[in-house]
Structure formats: structure tokens, C-alpha cells
Amino acid sequence: MKILGIETSCDETSAGIVEDGNKLLANIVRTQIDIHKEYGGVVPEIAARNHIEVILPVVNQSLRTAKLNWKEIDGIAVTNGPGLMGSLLIGTLTARMLALIHRKPIYPVHHVLGHIYANWLLDDKPEFPLIALIVSGNHTHLFYLESHLKVKLLGRTTDDAVGEAYDKVSKLIGFGYPGGPFIDKAFHRGDLNFLDLPTPKVPGKYDFSFSGLKTAVLRRSQELIGEDFRFPSWQIAERLTEEQRDSIAASFQKKAVEILVKTTKKAYDEFNPKSVIIGGGVAANQYLREELQKALPIKLNYAPIDLCTDNGAMIAALGCFMAEYSQPTDPRDIKTNPSLKIDYQK
Prior knowledge:
By secondary structure, this protein is of the alpha/beta class. The chain folds into two domains: 2-122 and 306-333, ATPase, nucleotide binding domain (Nucleotidyltransferase, domain 5, 2-Layer Sandwich), CATH 3.30.420.40; 130-301, ATPase, nucleotide binding domain (Nucleotidyltransferase, domain 5), CATH 3.30.420. 42% of the residues lie in helices and 18% in strands. The strands form two sheets. Strands 3-2-1-4-5 form a five-stranded mixed beta sheet, with helices on both faces. A hairpin with a 2-residue loop joins strand 7 (140-147) and strand 8 (150-156). It starts with a strand and ends in a 21-residue tail after the last helix. The model has no long low-confidence stretch (mean pLDDT 94).
């Protein structure tokens, strides 16, 4: 079975083709990072317009890369949420149109669960039951999966996603966007114990919180430059030394990773899964991978960097299993939902 997956939840336009849920045939990604850099973050209107310009060329390129025609495609999977409303609309409307024109079954996919299924495109595939930590600019979720599509949400961030906190701290100390790569580089230059940062309190056993951590970085940075906190956040970076900026970044990353690792290890100890998966853009962080692996007595499963960020291949992979274990949706009934909840439990 060959499924075409379409992903446009934020600022990547992507189409991937996967066979039988585990064989990657194509994965075309057009990123908008350079477009949004000057704004310090994603501008929804600009993202949606860019998706319109490239979505069909990206789909066609994926077919050429896989050396397939539409007759050889067995179905279409598309991200219908969560994400930016305008971006999601471009992907879902395109997928609906293609499904109707080519008479293909269509499967609406939850974006966050798609990140889990990037791990099925590896040679070393996860085993059930499993724990999945999904970390990105918009999402921080911890899941327990008994089998395909049987998903239990254990916890999630109560405020900022960890990737969003990375971006905001990076901006605060004068680094670029996206913040993850900049902070990770500074991490290796700075003092990990430069700032004594708190562990935010959370309501649930497996929940996360990063807003308070971000605010603590702001307050500690203001203390470093003194003057009774007179300087607003956008003036802090120019008053910090290079060594201070690197060490602030290092302290922040150490605490953020510590929070993610401790919560995931807590879930592992309770559920005793056969596999632990990490996915999402922040899963590309080498320090997070190393610390999580140190905490676990089993091998950690994670995708290569090009499958950690948003991509159509992960959507196609999940679409293959949806085609096997569930029924397709009428294309005219697919709705976009920026706040889509997990509803695959059986």
C-alpha cells in the first residue's frame, strides 16, 4: 500500500510517499525558515500564502521522486490539525481536491501523532507498548501507545511548548530564530551551572511547564545587568557579555532537558514499555538524546534530523496504518481544527 502524505501545519510545505507504513519512497520539504527569520518567528498570513505557491509543485515532485503516477497511489493522508488555521486549510483543501479528482480514499491525520510514526521509517522499529515524547516549537506531549492507533495522552505542556521557550530565550539573549540550534551551539561554550533555574510546578503527574522557566531566565538576566531591572527584555541582549549569553543558554538548556528527561523516566518506570520514542523538531537536540538515553535502561528510538522536523513522510506513514486499521473519511467531511485533540483511542 502506497500513501501520499501532505503536511502544512505551520511553516513547512511537505509531501511524502510511504509504502506499507515503513518504506520511505519520497519526502519533499520546502521550509520557510529564511522567510520568517526577519520577524523572529512564524507570521501566519505569510506562511499560508507561501503554502499556496508551493503545495502542488511539492506534491508533484514527490511523485516524480518516488517514480509513481496517481494510479499507483492507494490513498492520501493529510494533517488537519493542530496547527495554524491558514496553513492547515491549504493542505486539507489541496488533499480534498486531489482525493476527489483521482478518486482516492483520504485519511485526516493528527499532526503530533504523525511525529511518532516517523520512527517506523527506520530500520530499527519500535515495539509496543511504547512511550512517546513529542517535543517541538508548538507541542510538548507524552503518550503511551498499546498498539497502532491505541493512544493515551499521559501529559502535555500547560503553557509554552519547549521549542517555543527555546525561541523566546534565544531572542531574549540576542541569538537568532529558530532558537534551538543557536542555544545548542552556545550550550557547548557556556557554563551549565551559571544560573540556578527553578523546576516549574505542574498540575498533572506527567505534565510540563516552560513559561515559568522562560520568565526565570528573563529575571536572572535582568539581575546580571543590574540597574534595578530598569531595562526591558528587548534591551537585555546588548548589555550582556558574550560569555554571559552563552552561559545563560547553557543553563536554560540544561534545565529544559532535565524537565523532559525526568518526566519521561517517571512514565517509563510506571508503564515499563518495550520502546521509548522521541520525536518533533526538538528531538534533533543531541544533548536531549544523550541525557534521555542515560536515564533509560532500554535503547531510545529516534528519527534522523530530516524526519524530526515537520514532514509529509511521517503523515504518510501514519496514514498507512490508518488505512489498515480504520475507515477513510469522505473528502467533503474533512475539517481543519487548529486545536485538534487526540481521538484515535480504541
